[in-house]
Design brief:
This protein is an alpha/beta fold. It is built from twelve helices and 17 strands. The protein has a six-stranded mixed beta sheet, sandwiched between helices. Strands 13-12-11-14-15-16 form a six-stranded parallel beta sheet, sandwiched between helices. Strands 3-2-1-5-4 form a five-stranded antiparallel beta sheet. Helix 7 (278-289) links the parallel strand 14 and strand 15 (296-299). Helix 5 packs across helix 10 (339-355). Residues 355-377 are annotated as: Disordered.
Length: 394
Amino acid sequence: MRDVLPTLESWWAEGRPAALATVVGTFRSAPRQPGASMLVGDDGQAVGSVSGGCVEGAVYELGSGILEGTDPATLQRYGVSDDDAFAVGLTCGGILDVYVERVDRESFPQLGEIAAAVREHRSVAVATVVSGPAERVGRRLVVWPESVEGTTGSARLDDALRDDVRGLLAAGRSALVSYGTDGERRGEGLQVFVESFAPPPRLIVFGAIDFAAAVARIGTFLGMRVTVCDARPVFATSSRFPEAHEVVVEWPHRYLAKEAEAGRIDSRTSLAVLTHDPKFDVPLLEVALRLPEIGYIGAMGSRRTHLDRRQRLLDAGVTETELARMSSPIGLDLGARTPEETAVSIAAEMIAQQWGGRGTPLSDREGPIHSESNVEPAVSAASLSAALSPTAQA
């Protein structure tokens, strides 16, 4: 819903209804991820996409019927047709589960609050029953870190969802979760799509050098919240890094330690250490490599710089296990030369690490182009509860 939220909120505020189609489950080479959405307006306008063009026509017709009141909210599966691969379906060979519902001020009174939270980078999640008993389908909970609004019609399911959704929200994950019809975690018969609107993942770029501007630019392009940090005020200026969300003048290791202590560093945080100066890099990496949760740590430098930095870190007491968390020299081997090309190389490595990619040409691979970590089939509430840490569920 995030990608169409500004338009949806505008129509909602004007009292105009809309049909909202949301990808809630994907399998194999599906073109869009869960949460991708498309709107059908009361004036016939279509906004957004659920499949990059494959099934939009069919979804539009379904949404139009729901807006007219002739069809109920529904969960529809789209895949390749056995008879004709170019019939209504996904020619890429993937499978999408799309939930289509009517949204207006009566059916979704919390939408304005949700849109405001997303704009202000505050965490909120929406849990919608997308399949199960007819009287439950379309009911939803809106879950904030400290409060809950709405109901699914079952107190037991509401209680289970409150804990499970907060765990997903803390991890920044969306998921299709299965429950029993009365909220039993080990049951079946009811599916809930949880869409998490967590703050954007962070990218902290250390070192106010020319490469940092390009890395900040591509981080912003990828939807990350970008910070550039350097201890030298003459270089760390907003005018040199207009694409960054903030520029901080501070010794890197002190800034990172303060951010970690404040709870602003997590598994969705990436660090790009670009100074390749030991007086900055070594104390910074000592802090970074010992943090319990961090998504990516990359350090720039030649092979010689890498070996010198590695030995300095070992001499400082950093273990081999901790060193293994560092990508150095930073980036994938793309033959990059310019700052912009190097930024693409760094971003490619961050993406590959996030999704389990190997950085090889797709033309050299056989089978599905997306790894198994890229797909989001429904999970049982019991397995989800076991997978989430106690801290995440607190």
